[in-house]
């Protein structure tokens, strides 16, 4: 590997190692620094290897267990072992092609036993399997495998489109569930608010009617005290007619009022008053009979 160079001295750079031969046979390794060579004795610098970490990107296309074609992008980081640099120099003509061939072999042996989802979930396991296999093989050739990164997993474009649609459908379904729950909570809160409003409205109506009753009682008593000779019926008729006109006035004061006042004529008001009085008299009679 490399061309022999016959000279009296040689300089090996840092993070490199030189291979010295004597009459075409490996003699020794030259560490970084300045070295004298015995050219008369047949010594020469056959080559220099870098001990820096090198990176090799490999793309492997294979098929998963569920018959999906997928392309995996691997990044292999390796370096020459200083003490075994002679093996790295003489044993392999093209170490990058050798590493790539082993990566192909290991990946295509593991991925077909896994589904596409498992490949995504267990890509670190695939990388570890490749690392273990390469360490066993390349260590004998003077190379150490530092790291293997599974950079990317690219399924077939149609598969990726289908996966995106499935993911979008799942998210839409989840969004619908959350939206339904939110609407349910709003409906419950709205119902609770309406119930509370009706309760408070009922309390207000009850107090209003109590106040009206107290006012009517006070008006009737004052009427009897100030005007002698009037009957209870005449007083009630007068009050009912007064309330009727007050109601008509309130309805006419607002153009957007939707209240319907039935019956409408003053004669009907008299009929309603008689019905109320008859009801009160029947109730009083029932109480007397119970006693």
From TrEMBL:
Residues 7-167 form the Band domain. Gene3D superfamilies: Band 7 domain. CDD domains: SPFH_like_u4 (cd03407). SMART domains: PHB. InterPro entries: Band7/mec-2_domain (IPR050710), Band_7 (IPR001107), Band_7/SPFH_dom_sf (IPR036013). PANTHER family: HYPERSENSITIVE-INDUCED RESPONSE PROTEIN 4, STOMATIN-LIKE PROTEIN 2, MITOCHONDRIAL. This is Hypersensitive-induced response protein 4. The gene is HIR4.
């Amino acid at each position: 590997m490399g061309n022999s160079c016959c000279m009296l001295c040689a300089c090996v750079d840092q993070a490199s190692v030189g291979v010295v031969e004597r009459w075409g046979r490996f003699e020794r390794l030259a560490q970084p620094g300045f070295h004298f060579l015995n050219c008369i004795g047949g010594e020469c610098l056959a080559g220099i290897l870098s001990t820096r970490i090198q990176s090799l990107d490999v793309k492997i296309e294979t098929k998963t267990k569920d018959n999906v074609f997928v392309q995996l992008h691997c990044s292999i980081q390796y370096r020459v072992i200083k003490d075994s640099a002679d093996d790295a120099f003489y044993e392999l003509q093209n170490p990058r092609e050798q590493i790539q061939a082993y990566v192909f072999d290991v990946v295509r042996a593991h991925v077909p036993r896994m589904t596409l989802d498992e490949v995504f979930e267990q890509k670190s396991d695939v990388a570890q399997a490749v690392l273990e296999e390469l360490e066993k093989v390349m260590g004998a050739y003077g190379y150490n495998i530092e790291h293997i990164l599974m950079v990317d997993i690219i399924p077939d474009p149609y598969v990726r489109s289908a996966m995106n649609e499935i993911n979008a459908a799942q998210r839409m379904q989840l969004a619908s569930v959350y939206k339904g729950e939110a609407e349910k909570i709003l409906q419950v809160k709205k119902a609770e608010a309406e119930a509370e409003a009706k309760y408070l409205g009922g309390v207000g109506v009850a107090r209003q009617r109590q106040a009206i009753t107290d006012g009517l009682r006070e008006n009737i008593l004052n009427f009897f005290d100030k005007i002698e000779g009037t009957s209870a019926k005449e007083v009630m008729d007068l009050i009912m007619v007064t309330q009727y006109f007050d109601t008509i006035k309130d309805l006419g004061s607002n153009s957007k009022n939707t209240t319907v006042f039935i019956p409408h004529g003053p004669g009907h008001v008299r009929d309603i008053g008689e019905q109320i009085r008859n009801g009160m008299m029947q109730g009083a009679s029932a109480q007397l009979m119970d006693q």
